[in-house]
Every structure is written in C-alpha cells, then in structure tokens.
UniProtKB/TrEMBL annotation:
This is Helix-turn-helix domain containing protein. Residues 5-65 form the HTH tetR-type domain. InterPro entries: Homeodomain-like_sf, HTH-type_TetR-like_transc_reg, HTH_TetR. Keywords: DNA-binding, Transcription, Transcription regulation. Pfam families: TetR_N. Coiled coil: none annotated. It comes from the Bacteria. Gene3D superfamilies: Tetracycline Repressor, domain 2. The keyword Cytoplasm does not apply. Residues 28-47 bind DNA. SUPFAM superfamilies: Homeodomain-like (SSF46689).
Length: 196
C-alpha cells in the first residue's frame, strides 16, 4: 500500500521523466499523470499544477545535492578533498541534468525559473556557508571574511565549469585541479598581505 510520501515520490519521478524528455514548457499534467500511472485528479491531490511539481522536484534535487555536500565536509580528508567533495555535489547535479536531458538541461537549470528561484538562492547560500565554514575551520588565520571570499571564488569557478558539460569527464577533472591550486595558493600569502 502506498502512503502519501510514496505517491508524491512517484509523481515527482514522473515529472522528472517528462521534464527531461520534453522540457518543462512542453510537458503537461496529462503527461505527468500518464508517466506516474495515475489519473490526473489523483495527481492533483499531491501537486497543484505543473509549476508546483517543478518546484517540488527542484527542491528535492537541491536537497539531495546539499546532503552530499554536507557529507563531504565530515568525511576524513584534507581541505582540498573536502572542498572538492562539496563542489562535486554541486557539479554532479548539473552534470546529471545534462546527461539525462541534453536538449532541455539549460531550461531545467535556469536560475531565472520563477518557480524555484528562491530555492536555488537558498541552495547557493547553503553551499557558500558550507565552503566558508570548511575553509575557516582548516585555515583560522584567514578569518571568516577571507574564507567567504575564497568560497565565492570556488562557487564562481564551479558555475563556469557547469556552463559546458558536453565532455562529462573534463569538468570534474578541472574542478579537482582548480580546487587543489586554490588551496595551495592559500599557503602562499598574497604580496599585499605580507606587506601589511
């Protein structure tokens, strides 16, 4: 017997299949109901409309990426490994969408999507906080403000890698190399810092 959570999962899985196959704009509630093996009225008991389904699905995907990112900060390893793990969770979400839907990934990943803009903003804030905390813990000499700047640099770098995921191996390799270089740079103070 299915409970409400199972039914919602079934609907969100169906929505993911439809959105990755047809795109959000071209998918209909009929498509989602058919994919879920449910009637449209039954689907409407769990989601208000296609936009609600998209928002709930986006929340689920972002939450899963955050769980992976948080786990990376508690995994034994040095700062490079922890930061790489956090950012691999972010990059992995984008890579999964590109893999599952090359034709519609840009639409699915669009930050401008009104239905989920606040969720994406909260996700980005949480990622920044995770990175800042990991950096500040490993390098207390930096202070929180500088650790936050490094976190911003890492997020900007990762967003750049997300822009071209046509070669699935290259972004992950570049991420590892970039994080390693940035962390190595933290061990060598900037000349302006040495003068002060």
């Amino acid at each position: 017997m299915f409970d409400d959570e199972d039914r919602l999962d079934q609907i969100l899985n169906a929505a993911y299949a439809c959105f990755t196959r047809h795109g959000v704009r071209r998918s209909t509630m009929d498509d989602i109901a058919r994919e879920a093996g449910m009637s449209r009225p039954a689907v409407y008991q769990y989601v208000r409309n296609k936009q609600d389904a998209f928002r709930r699905l986006a929340g689920r995907l972002l939450d899963a990426a955050l769980v992976d990112a948080r786990a990376a900060t508690t995994t034994p390893g040095d700062l490079t490994q922890q930061l790489t793990g956090v950012l691999e969770a972010k990059l992995g979400l984008a890579a999964r969408l590109w893999h599952d839907s090359p034709a519609h990934a840009a639409e699915l990943l669009g930050v401008e999507t009104r239905q989920s803009a606040d969720l994406v903003e909260a996700y980005n804030d949480a990622m920044r906080d995770l990175l800042t905390s990991a950096i500040a813990s490993a390098r207390p000499d930096l202070g929180t403000a500088d650790a936050g700047e490094v976190a911003e640099l890492l997020l900007a770098f990762t967003r750049g890698l997300e822009a071209d995921l046509t070669d699935p191996e290259a972004p992950a390799r570049r991420l590892r190399q970039g994080v390693a270089l940035l962390v190595a740079g933290l061990d060598h103070p900037h000349p302006d810092k040495e003068a002060s």
